[in-house]
Amino acid sequence: MTKIAVIGGGQIGEALTGGLIASGFDGQDIVVTNRRAERREEFEETYKVKTTDNNQEAVKGADVVFVCVKPYAIVDMFAEINDSLAKNAVVVSMAAAITLDKLEGAVGPQVSVVRSMPNTPMLVRNGMNIVVPGKNVTSEQLDTVKELLSTVGKVLEVTEDKMDVAAALAGSGPAYYFLVTEALIDAGVNLGLTREQASELANSTAAGAGQLLVESEQNASSLRYGVSSPGGTTVAALRELEESGIRGAFYRAIDKCVERTRSMN
Ligand SMILES: NC(=O)c1ccc[n+]([C@@H]2O[C@H](COP(=O)([O-])OP(=O)(O)OC[C@H]3O[C@@H](n4cnc5c(N)ncnc54)[C@H](OP(=O)(O)O)[C@@H]3O)[C@@H](O)[C@H]2O)c1
After folding, report:
1. Share of the chain above pLDDT 90, in %
2. Tell me, what does this protein do in biology (predicted)?
3. Across the chain, how many H-helices and E-strands are there?
């Protein structure tokens, strides 16, 4: 059985641990680290995994090490665990913005590193994980990492030159959909719906539209055409959105997101 270490038991570390356990992984094959003792107890009770506050101990014997600490701490964490890694271990960074070059520079020249970018729907096992394999990663290691990440959603491999843009779409993407949903709720309340009614309508519509996008064989444009009767109500609303510059706003938003990511490197 694959031995797994999860370094940093925060939101992302917990989502991953929960997904692995729900997919049938044995908690005794997973070690989670965290500095706060009460957090470690929560993991032990909820997921029946092993825990420790010693990152070096945790990675000893692990085949795959997921590092789920904040971006500012990730390079130091790679350096901290480097000497304790098993010979064929693969280390996966879940941190936004930090390049493979920096991650690989923090560990030995032979160490296999994967850069990954999750998103928060991973918390409900419906995430989108982007992965970029480093130079030492074997196809077998990459398959293992993809298989483990697929317990919490979909996995897309890209080359690193595409990572920042992919992350701007999927990593930050849930926030855009949440903002659109909030705006719809406020618009409904403005016209007399209760906030509860408007929330149920907007939230369920977001979930249903998302599922349709993924499951239907049609693309987003043709699904939109399907609800846009000539001269009808939906096209009247869409025209207002287009005239308000929604499409341009998304182009500019993604530009800004990528620009900000690159300024962090
Ligand atoms: N949340 C998102 O939407 C999202 C999306 C994409 C990517 N990510 C990436 O995922 C990573 C984790 O994010 P998150 O939201 O899960 O952060 P988080 O909730 O703050 O989790 C980080 C965890 O690491 C623990 N930690 C910090 N230093 C540690 C150390 N030296 N040893 C052991 N544990 C340590 C922290 O707890 P203690 O301080 O108690 O140890 C905390 O539980 C980040 O790099 C972020 O860029 C997050």
Report:
1. 97
2. Catalyzes the reduction of 1-pyrroline-5-carboxylate (PCA) to L-proline.
3. 12, 8
Query: Is residue 27 one of the residues assigned to a domain?
Result: yes
Q: How far is the CA of 69 from the centre of ligand 1 (A)?
A: 4
User: Is any atom of ligand 1 closer than 6 Å to the C-beta of 33?
Assistant: yes
User: Does the Cβ of 56 fall within 6 Å of ligand 1?
Assistant: no
Tally of domains within the chain? 2
Ligand 1 geometric centre to CA of 13 (Å): 7
* Distance from residue 67's CA to the centre of ligand 1 (Å): 8
Question: CA 146, CA 92: separation in Å to the nearest integer?
Answer: 11
What is the span of the domain harbouring residue 144? 4-159
End of a domain among 110, 126, 159?
159
Q: What is the pLDDT of residues 86-115, one digit of tens each?
A: 999 999 999 988 999 999 999 989 999 999
Q: CA angle, corner 226, sides to 251 and 178, nearest 5? A: 45
Q: If you take atom 26 of ligand 1, which residue's CA is the nearest one?
A: 8
Which pLDDT tens digit goes with each residue over 112-130? 999 999 999 998 999 999 9
